[in-house]
Structure formats: C-alpha cells, structure tokens
Write a structure and sequence with these properties.
This protein has 380 residues and is an alpha+beta fold. Helices cover 31% and strands 25% of the residues. It has 12 helices and 17 strands. It binds adenosine-5'-diphosphate and magnesium ion.
Length: 380
Amino acid sequence: MIAPGSTIGVLGGGQLGRMLMLAGRALGYRFHVFEPKGPCAAGMVADLEINAEYTDLDALRRFAEGVDVITLEFENIPVEAIELLSAIKPVLPGQQALHICQHRQREKDFLKGSGLPCVPFEYADSADSLKSAVEATGFPCVIKTAAFGYDGKGQIKLNAPEEAADTEYLWDFLGKPPRVVVEKWIHHIGEFSVICARKADGTKTTFPMAENVHVHHILHASIVPARITEATRTAGETLACDIADKLDVVGLIAVELFLDEDGSLIINEMAPRPHNSGHYTIDGCLTSQFEQHIRAVTDLPFGSTELLRPTVMINLLGDVWGEHAPDWSALLSDPRVKLHLYDKGEARPGRKMGHFCVVGSEVEETLAAAEAHYARLAGA
Ligand code: ADP
Ligand code: MG
C-alpha cells in the first residue's frame, strides 16, 4: 500500500490531472505533475510542476526519482518515456494497456481478437490504400488518424462517394499520418460509457453507466442514470470489467459505447484514465472516478460508486465565453448546480474550460434544468 502522505507523479497536466489531484489531496497525498507546456491546469494544485518534453530523459528521470508511484491523465505518452519511468517506479496503468489504447488500430485489433463487439473498420497508410479502405467500408464512414486524436480532432466523416473522390487531398488534410482507420458510421440510438476501476489483485468496481450527448464530435452532456434497460446496463458493465481484466488495468478504464438499433452494444473506444463522461461522479456518487483512481494506484480499498441522486453534467467549452466570462452568479442561483472551472486562462473555441452538474431528484427534470441553464449561458 502507498500510504497517504506519499507522493504521486502524474503525467499530463490538464483538467483530468487537476481533478485527480484535488481528490487525492483530500486523502492526504502529494503530487508532482509532468507536462510539456506550463503553466498547466493541474500544476496549479500540484506541489511541483515539471515542464519538459516527453523525450527529455533527464527530466523524466528526475520526475520518477521524486515520487512513489506514477500514473497519468493522458495516454499518448511515447513508449520510450514509459519504459524509462517503469524501470525506476511503478507506472499505473501498465505498458500493455497504454500501448493498446494509444492507437486506434491496435485497440480495434485487440477488441476483435478478444471477440468483443467493435465498429467494423479498415485501415490505410497512404492516399492509395485510403481509397480502397473507404470503398470496402461504404458510406457514411469516418476516417480517424490512428494516433493522437481527441475531441474529434484528426477525423473526417464522409457521407457519399463524391466526398471520397480525391483521397490525395484527404490524406494531405489529415497531415499525411503514418496510419488511419476507416470506420463504418454507426446509426446508433444513443452513446453511453462505463468506467471500471481495477486494483492489482483484480478487484473491480464500475460507475453507473452514463448516457452521453455529443455535439460536433465533442462531449456536451452526460445523463445519469442512463435511460436504458437493465439488460443494457448489465451488458455495458460486463464489457468494461472484461476489458479491464484483459488489459490488466490498475486504475481506471473508460469504455465508450454505441447502442445499435438492434439493442446491442458496440465498443467505440477506450481510455485508460479518468474520462470526461465520469465528471458527474464528483457530485453525483459517493466516491468520484478521481478518488477511485487514487485508491486503485495506491492499493487502498475502493469506495462505493453508488449514485446518490440523478445527475446531469454539461461541458463548458471556450465557445460560451465570448467577450466576457459567463454569468456564474445566475447559474449558481440554482442551488442544485455544482460548478467546476479549470482555471485555464484563454477561452478558445472547443477548449474544455469547465463543467457544471445539476444534482436533481428526477432524471428528465434534471436534464431539462441543465439544458435550460446551458442555453442561458450560451446566450441561445
Ligand atoms: P475522440 O477520441 O475524439 O473521442 P471518437 O472516436 O470517440 O474520438 O469520436 C468522437 C465522437 O464522434 C463519438 O463519440 C461519436 O459521437 C462520433 N463518432 C465517431 N465515430 C463514429 C462512428 N463510427 N459512428 C457513429 N458516430 C461516430
Ligand atoms: Mg471518444
């Protein structure tokens, strides 16, 4: 067990790291953060912020020597960095989970190889092979760069053959990546996610499934409890636990799911870290995803993930800022609202600046209240 008072190293300094540290501090842990570009949102609540590239081996070594265990809030860490760190201190989750979840093709190959339901896909590594991959997939489809994508970045949706006529142009537009996957577009009836926390001894807990609404490929809202059948809920939890075991995760794994028209669940992607769709757990559950992650990597017993009240989370992107910050007093005049701001400075469009939750008593009414608050903030 890594006792409270010990120091936890976190790779990545965004809002996920910030909320991880806020939760861990309540348990008495100290934090060092490693982030290429400072000052960062997590650095403001850390004991020490190291700003260096993931290729700076000396800086990585110093970081590892100063902490008792290492975890991450960002999975796209170069494998060489993880290897170096792992030789000095435990890195959780381990290399296997990171290697697979860093790369869309490896992720899909893993799911397919494990007999788990995933989106039909082809892959390509040139403008030429993209042409045949798109033809084999059919329309609509979506091209995704295999590595380094997030919040819909590195993705192009193609609705009809005309849009795929010039694959040289598409390839340039994607930045000539080493590899892409082409996925069939799923006409799903909803998006959901399950977060599973797992300890080294295989103990697992799952958080209540979230129903997620995306706008322009970015998460807009999470609704909990998800409005689904008990069978779907159980199926989602089983998938997440199965993946956590197969990847030998220590910490969290978030599994994004599509609910198909025929009632089956299809896995979209996984993330071996806290997840945006789990932010509702801070206000809605007895234990948050962040606290559970800390408990997993320090080998403390898990807390209850019970949902206390119906909770709706809404993301606040830089788009709602405009000339001035939104009117927080108006939002907080509803006493059921809990506001979380990440202190990121400049509010650029698409940048995740904060979120709020409405903690209600009935899910439909809670959702209506949350959307009404959001519409007022966004000036709609
Ligand atoms: P990111 O890493 O940006 O989260 P995702 O692959 O999860 O990338 O895509 C973001 C969103 O785009 C999804 O949550 C979903 O709303 C939509 N999307 C992506 N791929 C598909 C697909 N094959 N079928 C339907 N919707 C998709
Ligand atoms: Mg996603």
